[in-house]
Amino acid sequence: MPRPVLQLWRFDESEYDRPNQAWVCGKQADGHACRIGPDAGGVCLATYECMPRKDGAHARCTRPESAGGKCSEGPAKDGTCAHAITKCHPVRSWKSKRRLASIAIALAALVATLVACFSRGPVANGFVSPGPLTPAHAAAAATCADCHDSAVTAGGLLAAIPGGGATKCLDCHRDAAGPGANHPHGSATSSSERTLTCASCHPEHRGERVEIARGGDLACRSCHPEADGSLAKHPEFTALGAGNARIHFDHTAKAHRTERCESCHVLDAEGRRRVLPGFDAACSRCHLEEIAKPTAFAWRDPSSVRREPDDQASRWESDLRALACRVPLAPGVIAASAASDADPMTLPPPVPAAAVTARTWLAGAAGTRVMPASFATGFPATGEWLAEGDSLSYRPLVHGDPVAKGWLDLVARHAGRKPRYKDDGGRCTVCHALDPAVAGVPAAMAWTGHRDESRVTRFSHRAHGEVACQSCHAAQDGMFAPVTKAACTTCHASGKASDGCLTCHGYHEVEPAVPAPIAETLTGAAACEGCHANASKAWAASTHGTARLDSDERRAPAQEIADKLGLRGGALAERCDPCHATGVTLSAGEGGTNGSKHEARITCEACHGAARAWIGVHADLSVADRAERSSRAGMRRAGDAFALADACVSCHVVTDRALVAAGHVSGSPMDAMLWSQGEVRHGFGDGCTGAETEVNREMPPQRRRALFVVGALLDLHHSLDADVLTTAGDHRDAFAARIGKASKKLRKAASADAALGAELEKVLAPLDALELDVDPAVAPSAKAVGRVRASARNSARWIADQHLADGVDALDGVIGAKIKGAPWTPPDAGTSTPP
Amino acid sequence: MISAMKPATLQRAGFAAIALAALVIAERAWGTALRDPAMLTGWTLFALVLLLAIYGVKKALPFLPLGQSTRWMHLHSWAGFLAVAAYVMHAGVRLPTGPLETLLALSFVLVAASGIAGLALARLLPPMLRARGEPILFSRLPGLRRTLAERAAALVAPSRALADHHRLHLAEWLASPDDALAHLRGSRRPLQRRLEHTEALFRYLSPDELMTARSLIDVIKQKDLLDAHHALQSALRAWTLVHIPVTGALVLLAAAHALTVIAFRGGV
């Protein structure tokens, strides 16, 4: 029997289905759907099964065949159908349900979008946050605005478009990243035209465990396409480790042999390099006598000095000036020397003349040139001057004699090679090689075993302590061959030790921090007096030059404080010397300008930085970028408002609670700018030539403004000590008052200029939030204090670097006029204000 | 498998592969240039999502001359695969963090997964429906089911044995759809089981009852056909209940995400 067909398709056998309708009969699920169906609004239209038709006096059933055909009962007498249909509750069709779901979900998404776009509170910020922060940032940042441009959250999402390209990372990380953080390797002169954003290599919001401090190796390839992140394909090293050749040392000589390399090559403080301990520690036992052998550097009659081509005559003169900073020479000699023609490269043999000193020479002996009496002051006693006829020779007696060094540097720069010495070959150049001229940097004598290394490449000898020295440093002719790449790839290869770019190379080339003025890095105030005589006199007459802890006035109070704290000897020096002396440790047996200097006063180096590293370049007037190179070597220049103000404020604000509790003052009411123009002012330099004048000039207006603002910010920074501010007491009150004063100054400064005000507002707004002056009993949170403290310091650096305050004339009306003490003036001279 | 594909399909697959290769190369180039590749892949993904969403608009406006629906369908399918690849390049294979991004990722995953499921179902299920024989309108299934139930009840009424069997084993099954998973797998085991169960009665029936029982067998087969249609056609509809509604949310959330990225891009 054939299976009956389920569906009927004829128009008269089946109903017409309308799947596009939104509502269907509620009885359809049971299979009893009526053929009438609901309307578009979902209202059931069912009444009767048919609408009877009048046929004369009778009514006839009109029910279609598909619904069962005419009924047997027929219409009622009143003409209505006899079969009523029970009304249903219509339901939505599949399509309608799907459409409703689409609308509902889209509305929910729209609400979410509106919340994201128009809300401004923490709920909205939390909604759009793409993920958790790393723990350090999560602890430091309370709101999105702490890192993102504040306009984003203040005005809502839409107000931030086009995007906020804020660089708030540098508000906290400027020290670590360096001033040129947005440029490749910190160089604003790099070939890249595009500044990079921090997020290019350090993405955040990737979760708590992501290490964002290191960018990936792939980023290096954007500028170094040859780098593929493996050491194997790195170009061969050039002259790596060959810096040892800067000081000749025959390791194969019998007297030089040691059991261990570490006997001479000791790790430096950072553990990066193995440095030589110095002539005194390593070589003097055998070679000290050779230093004193009669090898004279002949300083001929000026007419015998070779004259450079015309356009280089001034170079000779400036070089001689540089040498004169080490050994004061009369201006007359300098000027005359520049005009001579003789060859300085060939020096005479030792002069067996009677040894004379410069003073003898000054006495006007026959055949000698007379020099002014001022020449004799500060003359180093490390060597002997010998006079013969019209030639003046010099014989060094100690290692590292500055005159000898200066003369050799002078000659090396002009000749591009080491000076030649007759007969005994010269003592200095036996060991000290020449650094050849490289990329515009003139040749110079190699006085140390290592060059200043770029911070971009780093190698730690400490980390490689288990590797034998000979593994990398192959012996060659008594010295060592340059380190080859093969020495490194033995271990640093795929599957072994890391061999990515970032293993050895950094990106942010950050200059070493300015070293603390420990004794070994000082040269002593006498080194400055030669060129800065008037400045030295001004200093000597100021509080810095006269106040000593062992003076009659200060001894008793200082001792009382020391007794209360139980400080003696080295502990006492360690606690007090950072502010009351120059240099922390006492020198041990060294003397003269070549040795370390600890002085019980605030000398030049206390403010301008330990000079051992920068005195050479500072004194060399021929160097084009002398000022910048001096700064990089650690000098705090007068034009560097940040460095100078920091040096001042760091001592004039005392955060040591124990010290203050023992009776020390909590600080002095110092204004960095005003106080610098009083008794400590020593503006004798000629801004154009650098030579010293007789006029103690005021600071130029631009520097005054910068120092005023930066000084106030740094005063704020040093005063925002969480330990002090969270401990109730007089110390806290004093600091709160100090902070209030600094804040007042900064508000006045902020009102003077819009750009400056915008930068200062970044500090003042969170400072106000601390509410230090509201209720002294309520301590602010240490975290909040720390944030404002860091912000103040970074703003100070930013304002100084960008010179935001320099051109703001309105600041002149804000800066006070009450300087501390009167500026020192030389006799028969006066002060003046620069035009 | 490639040799079994139609030339037109191969051609479309080739275009998609070329587009994907271009995107991969561009993404690597951007990353090497220290530009954020997520910006490139993100905007590409957003454009693809809009292109995919336009298909729904096109279907709602059939009177507009926008080309053949078949071509749109192919474009929609291959653009969808490309969008999945772009998403993986953009967000990686990781759980999202943050409320907005979590919602966005969830919506994309739902749309993509339902789309892929729908594509597979649209390839697999229609042949299964055709194999079952008579085509049946989905909206008529309840009425046809009721008709069969009434017919079965009428058939078994004279026979006590059959009536008992109907009451115990068939009445509830005839009243509602059943065995959906089995029909989706294309399995006939439920039908076979019921037929065997009913045919087991034959030895106990009289000749008249036997005739009735054979008619009952036909009813069982027809009910099984209705169940198969119900299962397969429901599946063909169900994935659209996820795919289409969530698409609107996906577009809106993607726009919110784009605004957020623009607002917060930069140094930090």
Task: Describe the overall structure.
The complex is a heterodimer of chains A (835) and B (268). Chain A is mainly alpha-helical and 835 residues long. Chain A has 32 helices and 14 strands. The longest helix of chain A is centred in the first third of the chain and has 25 residues, at 94-118. Chain A is elongated. The N and C termini of chain A lie far apart (122 Å). Chain B has 2 domains: 2-133 and 242-263, no CATH class; 138-233, no CATH class. Chain B has helices at 7-32, 37-60, 69-91, 99-132, 141-156, 160-175, 180-185, 189-199, 207-264.
Strand content of chain A is under 5%
Helix content of chain A: 25-40%
H and E string of chain B: HHHHHHHHH
Unreliable stretches of chain B (pLDDT < 50, length at least 5) are none
Radius of gyration of chain B, rounded? 27 Å
Identify the most extensive interface between protein chains.
Answer: A-B, 71 and 58 residues
Radius of gyration of chain A equals 42 Å
Sheet with most strands: strand arrangement of chain A = 7-10-9-8
Shape of chain B from CA axes? elongated
List the helices and strands and how they pair.
The complex is a heterodimer of chains A (835) and B (268).
Chain A: E1 23-24, E2 53-55, E3 58-60, E4 91-92, H1 94-118, H2 122-128, H3 135-140, H4 150-154, H5 156-159, H6 169-177, E5 266-267, E6 274-275, H7 279-282, H8 284-291, E7 297-299, H9 313-326, H10 331-337, E8 355-356, H11 358-362, E9 383-388, E10 391-396, H12 402-415, H13 428-431, E11 434-435, E12 444-445, H14 469-472, E13 475-476, E14 479-480, H15 485-489, H16 501-504, H17 526-529, H18 533-541, H19 543-546, H20 552-565, H21 569-580, H22 604-608, H23 615-619, H24 626-632, H25 641-652, H26 657-661, H27 672-676, H28 701-719, H29 722-725, H30 730-750, H31 754-770, H32 782-802
Antiparallel strand pairs in A: 1-4, 2-3, 5-6, 7-10, 8-9, 9-10, 11-12, 13-14
Helix pairs in contact in A: 1-2, 6-32, 9-10, 9-12, 25-28, 28-30, 28-32, 30-31, 31-32
Chain B: H1 7-32, H2 37-60, H3 69-91, H4 99-132, H5 141-156, H6 160-175, H7 180-185, H8 189-199, H9 207-264
Helix pairs in contact in B: 1-2, 1-3, 2-3, 2-9, 3-4, 4-9, 5-6, 5-9, 8-9
